[in-house]
Amino acid sequence: MLSTIERVLLLKGADIFRAISSEDLVPVALVAREIDVAAGDTFIRQGEFGDCLYVLVTGEASVVVREAGQVAVRGPRSVLGEMAIISGRPRSADCMALTDVTALRVERADFWELLAERPPLALGVITLLATRLDDMDNNLSTLQRAVQT
Question: Which residues in 71-91 are b (16+ Cβ under 10 Å) and which e?
Answer without folding.
Answer: eeebebbbbbbbbbbbeeeeb
